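Handout, section 3.2

Students often ask what a structure token actually looks like in practice. Rather than define it abstractly, here is a full record for tRNA-2-methylthio-N(6)-dimethylallyladenosine synthase. The first block is the sequence as you would receive it.
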Amino acid sequence: MTKKLFIKTYGCQMNVYDSERMAGALETSGYEVTEDQSEADMILLNTCHIREKAADKVYSELGRLKPLRTTKPGLKIGVAGCVAQAEGTEIFRRQPMVDLVVGPQAYHRLPEMEARVQKGDRAIDTEFPEEDKFDHLPTARGPKARRSPTAFLTVQEGCDKFCAFCVVPYTRGAEVSRPPERLLAEARDLVDRGVVEVTLLGQNVNAYAADGWTLAKLIREMAKIDGLKRIRFTTSHPNDMSDDLIAAHGEEPKLMPYLHLPVQSGSDKVLKAMNRRHTAEKYLSILEKMRAARPDIALSGDFIVGFPGETDADFDATLALCEEVRYAQAYSFKYSPRPGTPAAGREDVPEHVKSERLAALQEMLTKHQAEFQRAQVGKILPVLLEKPGRLPGQIVGRSPYLQAVHLQAETSDIGRIVHAQIVSSEKNSLAAQQAAATYSVV
Ligand code: SAH
Ligand code: SF4
Ligand code: F3S
């Protein structure tokens, strides 16, 4: 009899990818993924440790699961992901009902851990094993293994950059790139299963280096796969933004005109304190090259406000940088001190100052996003139809610039790229017209 597995995924896209791979691993132990938590025989939380709030969510979710665990005999609860890696046995101490704790580099050991858990033991694995977990992690094949037209594909994992605020080098380990032929095979397999857009993932995806291949070469080779129509990648570090990769944006039509390039701050003093190892000017010069290679590129970034030592003048430099770049979209966060990171002991900026700065930055970013979106109105854009929308007959797709686009279309068209005329700009999406003259299937 098949057992049911419910996975709740927090954090970044890599966790989304990992959750699918964990489902694949546990399929071999007789599990099938369910979307209904109440029928689960195992609940796995795939967690994020990036900010305090993200990590706290795990314990509140475990608290909510407690009654279910108590009333449902045989239900097993596991914690995976970056909180599992960072906190390890502390999770059992704080929430004794947890059966299993598994860090991101040990997912291929899940079937064996599950077997121990079934015997009534607790299982924990937060090692960084020598072997490549992906060699031992099957892809989920079962009926519920979702197949949307878009998929993530981890090509690189881990980080050697050690930004002073960040837990990732500790939770994901050192930078490791997967062999190119495996990645091409995995991409072909995804395409065989109906995927038309692949997003290549890595904590420092543009630092990809395996068998003499760069990320640019990997993208160019992947673009040769028939049936694969769009390629994206995330997240890049400014210091690994090679000319080769920049050039690919002007030369490879399948590579989408969108670049997420976090800068964190516009102040060189803060960048230095963050151990970012680049200046604001260096960052801006990369974007300039990028725009020369692909003039319509949509730019995105990440920002941290209220890093220890950030003054009003430093923050103004961040605003000035944003004003200059005019991001199509960007993410901004209040600095959150993380245990074990170099900045954790430094004097924190008062909470109300962080809040004021975040509000000011977000106001500007929102304005720029609206400008970018409004500039799309009237254009005919190729839109990849991804999934049903909220309204009847509505389908949600993506523009090349990664905005969500709503339009009326047939469900049977999901997975297709259509040409649609953008008619209006909403807060976080665009609306497109369904008229036959402006809607053509590619
Ligand atoms: N290079 C990574 C970045 C992961 S963290 C990647 O693969 O995406 C994503 C973003 O979270 C960072 O760019 C940074 O802006 C933010 N972040 C990281 N640590 C943080 C902290 N301690 N407090 C607030 N924001 C943080
Ligand atoms: Fe974290 Fe910096 Fe590495 Fe990104 S580059 S994962 S922010 S340490
Ligand atoms: Fe979070 Fe780990 Fe991703 S800390 S952002 S889940 S790498």
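Discussion prompt for tutorial groups: Residues 159, 161-163, 166, 168-169, 203-204, 237 surround iron/sulfur cluster (ligand 2) (CB under 6 Å). How would you have guessed this from the sequence alone?
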